[in-house]
Design brief:
Helix content: 40-55%
Strand content: under 5%
Shape: elongated
Largest sheet: none
Structural class: mainly alpha
Radius of gyration: 17 Å
Order of helices and strands: HHHHHH
Distance between the termini: 29 Å
Number of helices: 6
Oligomer: single chain
Number of domains: 2
Number of strands: 0
Length: 103
């Protein structure tokens, strides 16, 4: 049985945003940005399955500013720049650690 938390486990705030982790919104965002909460494995797996594993290398090139941008990524894989931006944002919300874990 899961514990019934009424306050945030980090700061003691009474408003719980994520019940599974027992965190308020502020602490959840901090943990997410610091890489303490794992990335979206289903999303990255779906992207790899749909577009191939090389898309993750191309996204890494965008992060490293290695001559590729969101428009180039969209043209290469046949989707819009906006969709490329959304993919990039979801994968890199947590920083490069998401790709280092091999997800």
């Amino acid at each position: 049985m899961k514990p019934n938390r009424k306050t945030c486990r980090d700061c003691g705030n009474t408003k719980i945003f994520n019940k599974k982790r027992g965190l308020c919104w502020k602490c959840y965002q901090r943990a997410y940005k610091n890489g303490e909460i794992p990335p979206l494995p289903r999303f990255t797996r779906r992207i790899k399955d749909q577009w191939g594993p090389e898309i993750m290398d191309d996204i890494t090139r965008i992060e490293a500013e290695d001559g590729m941008n969101l428009s180039d990524l969209g043209r290469k894989y046949g989707f819009s720049r906006e969709y490329a931006r959304q993919i990039f944002k979801r994968i890199y919300k947590k920083g490069i650690k998401a790709l280092d874990k091999g997800i």
